[in-house]
Amino acid sequence: MLFTTDSLTAIVAFSTLPRVVFGAPALTFVSRNASLSYRVLPGDSNWPSDAEWNRLNSTVGGRLIRGAPLAQAACYATAASAASDACKSLQENWAMLDPFIADPVNVMGPYQQNNTCSPFLATSSGTCTLGSMSSYAINVSDAATVAAGVNFARKRNMRLVVKNTGHDFLGRSAGKGALALWTHNLKSAEVLNYTSSRYTGPAMRLGAGMQVLEIYKFAAAHGLRAVGGTCVTVGAMGGYTQGGGHGPLDASYGLGSDNVLEFDVVTMDGQHRTASPTQNGDLYWALAGGGAGNWAVVLSVTVRAHRDGPVAGARLSFARADLSHETYWNAVDAWFQHVATLDAQGLRGFRTMSRLTRSGFSLDMATLPGATAEELTTVLEPFYRSLEQLNVSLTTNEVSQQSNFLDHFLAYNTNNADTRNMTVGNRLIPRSLFHNATSLKLLTDALDTMVEKDNSTSEPIIVLLSSNVTHATAGNKPGDNSVLPAWRDSLFAVNLVLMSSERANWDTLASDLALMNSWQDRLRDITPGGGSYASEATFDNPNWKTDYYGDNYPRLLTIKQKYDPGFVLWNQPAVGSDAFRLGEDGRLYAV
């Protein structure tokens, strides 16, 4: 038996986000069956009984797991737990994603955790609740276990979410009272010789649970490389690919979504389907860029693979303290202009990840496949000269070549998840802005304000990702997938980050979120008609439809209504999410 007699009552007490994220009119009950106007929660009379949960557990071969707060056992089990070695160990590991990856319901998003069971706030009399995390999860193993979960949730009017690694700034893999389908352990991998009307060549079929570094290592072992992210623990065949997916190789081969050949999925009617350009083509189109966790449950993805070879890399930095305000920002401006010049000259494959902090500027990772160290040095030489003219001295300067992409990635990538209280925003900056002096000044002034002038107690970090993910780079044409069109015109993706203390209270988090939205608004004002990368933006952006989906939204909504007319999958701000509102009690209400 999965449950004790009072197993359900132990998890009835939940807390939730103390605000309505999307404004909506008062609930109108349009159905004679009131339960259809909202999703059920523990404690409701129509919440599944113990017997129903046990039958589901039997159906899925004992793979049903009851959700528990991540810090409960280590920090809240007894009055002495808060000071225990186990709690201290969890605190030390909290900033990395490993505890969340190994858990079927807990996710890294601070706004979804909501301090309901923080190891940093534990006291001898502290309380610990599940909060906005899912109530139960199925450790899915195949289409049958997924279908069982889908059908169970749909028939009982429950929230259903897909949880892979929990690496999601928007909290899309969490939901109060939800059943989570945990795909992290779907780790299959094989190399294929793929043939279709759109692509013939090497490919890999990868389970939804395969993570970035696992994919890079698997590909390298077969003399291949593949598009993936920079954070090694991201489940790259999950929400990463469905939302677009940028990474070190996107300037060579396009975004993650551009490289998908087909999806193996279970849809919300419980059916096992293939989604490709020739089978269920509309579903394929939506899955390839239209947002994470909203269309179907992905079991595996077949992606293009690319022949491996040498890759040149670089890193450099200069300190803010050594420079006047004007000189420092002129140096940042010189970097923007240099990348824009290289782009205009047609340099393909050059991709950079750099950061602006209160300490200074750092180019953490430059990637140029097929180049030697000398050739990459030549590419960077005009920027070196600009810095010399400004009397800016480099504190770090390294250029080298590795024999394959994996070795390059391991040599230069330092990016990993950080599950502290991090608030994230994003704006895609079109290449045209960097060829207009007035517009470029507006951008650097905005970044200056964010890093140096806004009075925030949280640490600001601006991540600048330069790519060239045009259709020519991706090898496709407009309309082949649902990637936000603004990606094709962008030269930089600007990620905005505020890092607050692990002990930050809700007022601090709410203040950070308000400030982040104001930053996004400022960048929107100087990039009219542009967009934002939804997977690294705010969940409560009132302009979410245009910013995150653009002109694709109407078609995406039609596809959502076709394959999931009951909105069994729901997250914010997914396509069609305004069919429900999230109440202050954490319940979903139909509108």
Give short descriptive properties of this protein.
Uridine Diphospho-n-acetylenolpyruvylglucosamine Reductase, domain 3; 5-stranded antiparallel sheet; disordered N terminus; 3 domains; 30% helix; alpha+beta
List the helices and strands and how they pair.
Elements: H1 50-59, E1 64-66, H2 72-76, H3 85-94, H4 98-101, H5 110-113, E2 136-139, H6 143-155, E3 160-163, E4 179-182, E5 189-195, E6 200-207, H7 212-221, E7 224-225, H8 239-243, H9 250-253, E8 260-266, E9 272-275, H10 281-287, E10 297-304, E11 306-307, E12 311-319, H11 325-344, E13 351-357, E14 360-369, H12 373-389, E15 396-402, H13 405-412, E16 421-430, H14 437-453, E17 459-466, H15 471-474, H16 486-489, E18 490-500, H17 506-526, H18 544-548, H19 553-563, E19 580-582, E20 588-590
Parallel strand pairs: 2-4, 3-4
Antiparallel strand pairs: 1-2, 5-6, 6-10, 7-11, 8-9, 8-10, 12-14, 12-15, 13-14, 13-17, 16-18, 17-18, 19-20
Pfam family, one: FAD_binding_4
Family: Belongs to the oxygen-dependent FAD-linked oxidoreductase family.
Keywords: Oxidoreductase
What do these coordinates show?
By secondary structure, this protein is of the alpha+beta class. It folds into three domains: 199 residues, no CATH class; 120 residues, Uridine Diphospho-n-acetylenolpyruvylglucosamine Reductase, domain 3, CATH 3.30.465; 240 residues, Vanillyl-alcohol Oxidase, Chain A, domain 3 (3-Layer(aba) Sandwich). Helices cover 30% and strands 20% of the residues. It has 19 helices and 20 strands. The strands form five sheets. It has a seven-stranded antiparallel sheet with strand order 15-12-14-13-17-18-16. A five-stranded antiparallel sheet has the order 5-6-10-8-9. Strands 1-2-4-3 form a four-stranded mixed sheet, with helices on one face. A hairpin with a 5-residue loop joins β19 and β20. α11 packs across α14. The N terminus is likely disordered.
